[in-house]
Structures are given as C-alpha cells and as structure tokens.
Design brief:
Helix content is 47%, strand content 12%. It folds into 3 domains: 402 residues, no CATH class; 110 residues, no CATH class; 110 residues, Immunoglobulin-like (Sandwich), CATH 2.60.40. The protein is built from 27 helices and 18 strands. The strands form 5 sheets. Strands 15-14-18-12-11-8-13-17-16 form a 9-stranded antiparallel β-sheet, with no helix packed on it. It has a 3-stranded mixed β-sheet with strand order 5-6-7, sandwiched between helices. Strands 1-4 form a two-stranded antiparallel sheet.
C-alpha cells in the first residue's frame, strides 16, 4: 500500500508541492479540531475552577510568574528578584522564561488564570504543530490526527506540565521541521524556520535545542529534496547558526547568571547521570504507571522509588502505548532514519545504565547538561511521525496477537504476585492491543479507528500524570500576613522541615497546601516575602548563598545567629508539635557600618571563619586602613528592587557591609563616585568609606543584555542576507 506520504510532493519534489495543505487550511480540518477538543476536555479543571500546582509549579514557577505579572501591572520590567535566595536576577535568569511571547497573557488575565491557560495552550500548540507537520509531509488526516495525539498526549509531553521550560520548547520542534520542510520542498525562505528553531533557547531548554538541531540534520540529510548535498548542508547551517544567533538576547545575558551559580563548573559524572532511566522502567513505554502512581502522599505507592534518583521520577511518565509503538514499528520500514533517531534518544536516556556512557560525558559541552532522561525528547517527534506512516501501512495481525498473549501472561503473573494496581495497568495495555487487532480487520474504517484508539489510549493513560487542585490553594494564608508585618521589608527564613502529614485523603494536594500555609522553604516568596537560605531548585542561585543553605540549617542556634544577622533575616520559623513558631531577630540589618576587619586567604577560609561566630568583617582582599572605632547604624531607602540608597555617619574609616551577595551587575556610588564592591563575610558584600557622612547608592543593571539584543538584531539581518544568497546560489543551481 502506497500512501500519499510517499508522493513526490510529500518529499519536496517539484510539480505537486502546492497540493500540500497550507497551515490555514489545516486549521479548518475536523480531525484537528477534535484533537484540540480532546486536550481541552482533559484539562477542563485548570481551565475552569482548578489549577496546576504539582511539584515545581507551586515551589518555583508560579511564584516567579506572579512576581512578573505584578511587576508588569506596576509599570516596569522586573530586572532583579528580591524574593529568591536573598536576591538574584529575574529578567536574564533563563529559568524564568521572561522573554517568552506567551507572557503577554499576564497583561490581560489575572496571574493564576493566565498561568493555567498558558500551560494548556502549549499542549494545544504541540498538537497543532505536529498535525500540521504530518499533513505537510503528505500524511492523511487520520494519520496526522494520530501523530498530533502522540506528540501532545504521550506521557513525556504530559509530564512537562510541571517542568515549564520543557513544555514551552516542545511545540517548536514540529513547527521548525514543518517550516523547514516547506522551505526546502517549495524553495521558500528559511527565515521562519530559523526563527522557530531559536525559540527553545528563549524557553531555557538548551538540551531540547541540541536535540532539535540533531533532528534538523537527520531530516535534511535523509529526505530526498531536489537539492544537492551542498545545498542541504547550507540550509542546515543557516537554520542552526542563525537560531543560535537570534537567541543571543536571551542566552548571552543568561551566561552571566550561570557563571555566578552552581552550574558554572563541570558537573561530576554522578551529578550528570542523575535521573537516568533504569532498564526496568522501559516497560512503562507500553504499560502506563508501571512503577506506580506519582500523585499520592504515601511514598510506598510508587514502587519504583528504588530505581529512581532521589526516590522519585523527574519525568512522571514515559508512556507511548502499544497502539502508538506498533504503528511506529510499522512505519519504521519507510522512514528508517526517524526510527534510528527515536531509538538513539531512548537508548541514551539509560545514562549510567548504558555501558560506555561515560564516553558521552567526556564529549565537549555535554557535561553542561544534566539528566539523561531528557534524551527521550529526541524520540517523541520521530515516534509520532512514524506512527502516522504506520497507520497507512499494513500491520501484521500475527505480531499483534503475540503482543496480546505476552501481555496476558505477564498480567496473570503480576496478579498472582498480589499487585492488583500493576495488574490493572497491564489490563489497560492488553485492551489497547486488542483494540488495534480489531481495528486492522476493517479495511474501510481502519485508519480512523486506529487514530481514535491511539488518542483514547493516551487520554486514559493521562489520568494521574497531572494532578490539579482548587484555586484556593494559592490564597494568602494568615501566617503570610503575620510574617510580612514582622519582617518590615527585611528577610524571612524557613528551614526545610521533614514532617508526617495527617491529611484527610492520600492526595498530594494536601502537601502543597501545608507547604504554602506554613511558608515552608521558598513558599513565602509566593506571597511577596523575601526569603533566603532555601533549596536552590533550578541551580541558578548565587553560588555562595546556595552553598550556605544546607550549612546554616545544620548549625546550632547560637552559631546561626551571626549569619542570620549578616543575611538580614528579621524573622525565622521553627516547628514544634506540628505548629509553626515565629522568632524575631532584632539584630539583623540590611546594612551596617563596621570598622573591625579580619582578612582571610580565599573563599574556603572565609567560609570556615564565618562558621565560628565572627565579630569582625571578613574580607578576602586586602582591607583598607580602619581605626576600629566600633559600629554605626545605616539608614536604608529602597527606591526599587534594582536601586537602594544608604546614608551613614561613619565615626572613622571603615566599611559599609551589605546583606547582599557580591553579584556582577551591581554597581556602587559613594558620594557620586564609583567604588568597587568587595566580597565580605563569605557570601555578602561591602564598600569602603572614609570618616564622615556619606550617601551611597547601589544599582543593578543586567550584564550583557544590550550586547545580546544587538547580537540578535545583527543575526537577524545576516539571516536575511544568507537566506537571499542561498536561494540565489545554492538552491537555484540545485533546481537547474
């Protein structure tokens, strides 16, 4: 059977390329609307009365988006985030995706509504992009429906809902390939494809960008366009090089953040291979929730915890399903290059369990990435497209029968082991395989029936991957008001606490509710309370502040006190009898004048001295001459998050010490004269002053932001020139 996908137009040959539907025509096709309706139905709760909240969403991403929305409504773009890790960049922090185009919704909707709609619309976008790509390469509407369903509803894609940068980047993979295919098949401009290819970098998905580049190379190399090898190489180079160049406005400033964080150094092999896919988990490709549910309070419910880093999966599900994989296997014979790419992604995801994987770690730049399970991203689009091709190909019924028999045998064995939940998962997989076996018998309805089975299988398996809660979860708790009044604009510290939660149900929602209600860890930041010494979730905290987090929590109270004073922690929390107790720290200060100075040799000595209840200011550089006349108060005026003014009457020469880390991008003026900010007290900073009254001003300006914007603009101009030259020289000659 020769499908329309094998037509000359579908492979980019002249004469019938115009027959492929335009994206506007695709948007009017009924199967695409049905697919979008299915996605909206699955996410009806967060679109109405509920909300996404699981894991990183309430701990990291929503608080950052809430701060962003409030800043925009106040009329300014947030450059500095005062609420996280004692202060860190906001606009240029890649994890915040501040330059992503979807952020415009925060201007017209309330923050929580915009947050939920943006997440759901990215699943819709992923479905539309994959469907359009499938139609662009000549697949029928049912085949495109299956491809779109697999790409947008497979377990991996659904799991990215609580990993926003990955979700934001995924739809741009099929979009880029579709734009690239149409450009090469119809000799159109490569500019849209290059712009699309740059978007994952705006989403802080660098690993995904690397896999997109690999997909571009494989696609161009193994699709028989009417182009010479040289023309193909030029096209691939234009898209890849200029995608990197166009993203400079986001990536170049981000390098300044990364350089000052824990990510600046090469990761160890153990850190690099965290969250490798255990070989036993590969069964989850065909059996949903094979390692158990991930949305419960009881850790024992997830029986795969012994095979996962930190006892819990980074990607909640890697399910594709038997219908999708059977179709993909059938389509692999017609598109072997896509099959190899898919297999490579899954194999590399094994990470430390893969013999010889350390050689991958030693490759240049590879160690800057993390978590081998991300390699599965490279397999999602190939599997989706292969399934589309396979839907239009003959399926061997005997093989399907063997699959069903194997699943039945394993399911019976597991049931005998008295594990009913896992046995039920095998029943799901077996029923899906039986559905495929029935569908292939009816030639007339075969294609739409298989497409429907794929979508239904993924929809049922999606239950439990994402969990939702009522929007009241993010209502401001009474404790937040008490803390806000007590800190009076200074900082709050809530050490990480291990608890035994007495909840009315086993729903993971209750843990999030308790965390937010008690302002545990970073949760105070959700309600506009500056916090410090909490878990560095994204690894982008100022390096020394992040290092102090675990150290401070482990110290006895008397040794914590000097550090809390220097960090301007006005209030901290403890737990007693499952109740939060607040403690005031009246000696904390945002800035202070000191004249007693102690010099140490290097970062390590500074850290050791800080832990010994120091009374003098600890400096790593040669101190200025001081008279040791005691301390003096400093008046602090916070003009904005990016600008702070101080006034001090110094009784002698000394230093004004700040409760802020030395971070590149901050400048200091003393009486209008630029002075160097020096590291002090290991994780904080100071400036020297002479005796007398002084006005000091500290201000933050993102490093490399203007250079990145200029680089993107130059790259855009060069892209148009390169595209014109390629179309006139390489592509024209190839056509002749």
């Amino acid at each position: 059977m020769r499908s329309d996908g094998d037509s000359e137009a579908g492979l980019g040959r002249p004469g019938r390329a115009e027959a492929r539907p335009h994206v506007l025509h695709v948007l009017r096709e009924r199967p695409l609307w049905l697919l979008c309706a299915l996605i909206l139905l699955l996410f009806r709760k967060p679109l109405t009365t509920g909300t996404f909240f699981f894991r990183d969403l309430y701990l990291l991403f929503y608080p950052k988006k809430l701060f962003f929305a409030e800043s925009l409504r106040a009329g300014h773009m947030p450059l500095w985030d005062p609420f996280t890790n004692g202060g860190q960049p906001y606009l240029v922090n890649p994890a915040n995706t501040a330059l992503h185009p979807s952020n415009v919704l925060y201007l017209v909707l309330d923050p929580l509504t915009a947050f939920n709609w943006i997440l759901v619309l990215h699943f819709v976008f992923a479905a539309i992009a994959a469907y359009w790509l499938a139609r662009s390469i000549g697949l029928s509407q049912p085949a495109a429906f299956a491809s779109g369903a697999i790409f947008s509803l497979c377990g991996y894609t659904l799991s990215t809902a609580n990993l926003m940068p990955l979700l934001f980047g995924l739809p741009w993979i099929p979009t880029t390939i579709a734009l690239l295919h149409r450009a090469l098949a119809q000799k159109r401009s490569l500019v849209p494809a290059a712009i699309s290819a740059a978007m994952p970098l705006f989403c802080a998905a660098a690993e995904m960008e690397a896999m997109l580049f690999a997909t571009i190379v494989v696609w161009i190399a193994f699709t028989p366009y009417d182009l010479t090898r040289r023309a193909k190489a030029v096209a691939a180079s234009i898209v890849i090089v200029f995608a990197v160049g166009l993203s400079l406005v986001a990536t170049l400033p981000a390098t300044a953040v990364i350089e000052q964080s824990a990510r600046s150094g090469k990761r160890s092999y153990d850190a690099f291979t965290t969250w490798s896919v255990h070989p036993l988990r590969l069964g989850e490709l065909v059996v949903p929730h094979a390692f158990g549910p991930t949305n419960t309070l009881n850790d024992a419910d997830y029986w795969g915890r012994n095979f996962e880093s930190e006892g819990f999966p980074y990607i909640l599900s890697i399910y594709f399903g038997i219908p999708a994989l059977l179709l993909a296997a059938a389509g692999a014979r017609r598109r072997p290059a896509l099959a190899v790419l898919a297999l490579a992604g899954i194999v590399l995801a094994l990470g430390k369990y893969l013999p010889g994987f350390r050689l991958v770690y030693e490759l240049p730049l590879v160690a800057t990435f993390r978590f081998p399970i991300k390699a599965v991203i490279a397999a999602i689009l190939p599997i989706a497209l292969l399934a589309g091709f396979g839907l239009e190909t003959f399926l061997d019924r005997r093989r399907i029968s063997w699959v069903i028999a194997g699943l039945c045998a394993i399911g019976v064995g597991i049931a005998a082991m008295k594990n009913p939940p896992l046995a039920l998962c095998f029943v799901h997989a077996m029923l899906a395989a039986i559905g495929v076996a029935i569908a292939v018998r009816n030639e007339k309805w075969r294609a739409p029936a298989l497409a429907a089975i794929v979508a239904c299988d993924l929809a049922v398996a999606s239950i439990g991957v994402n969990t939702f809660g009522p929007r009241e979860l993010f209502d401001r708790p009474p404790l937040a008001d008490a803390v806000s009044q007590a800190i009076d604009g200074e900082r709050f510290w809530s050490p990480k606490r291990d608890i035994v939660l007495d909840a009315p149900t086993n729903d993971i929602y209750w843990l999030a509710r308790w965390q937010l209600a008690t302002l545990n860890e970073y949760c105070a930041g959700t309600f506009g309370i500056p916090v410090i010494f909490h878990v560095d979730y994204d690894g982008l905290a100022p390096k020394r502040i992040g290092a102090l987090e675990a150290i401070v929590a482990a110290l006895p109270p008397d040794r914590q006190q000097p550090i809390l004073d220097r960090a301007d922690v006005r209030v901290f929390a403890t737990m007693a009898d499952q109740k939060v107790q607040l403690h005031r720290n009246p000696t904390a200060a945002a800035a202070r004048f000191v004249s007693s100075v102690e010099r140490v040799s290097g970062e390590g000595e500074a850290a050791k001295r800080l832990l010994r209840k120091p009374t003098a200011l600890i400096l790593e550089s040669a101190p200025a001459s001081v008279a040791n006349c005691g301390e003096a108060p400093v008046v602090v005026q916070r003009v904005s998050d990016e600008k702070v003014r101080y006034q001090v009457d110094a009784p002698c020469d000394g230093y004004v010490a700040f409760a802020d880390t030395k971070y590149n991008g901050w400048t200091a003026l003393v009486d209008g004269q630029l002075v160097d900010i020096v590291p002090a007290d290991y994780a904080f900073s100071a400036v020297p002053v002479k005796a007398g009254r002084h006005a000091i001003e500290r201000e933050y300006r993102p490093q490399r932001l203007m250079a990145g914007a200029a680089g993107s603009l130059i790259a855009l101009v060069l892209l148009y020139i390169a595209n014109w030259a390629a179309s006139r020289i390489c592509f024209t000659r190839a056509m002749n």
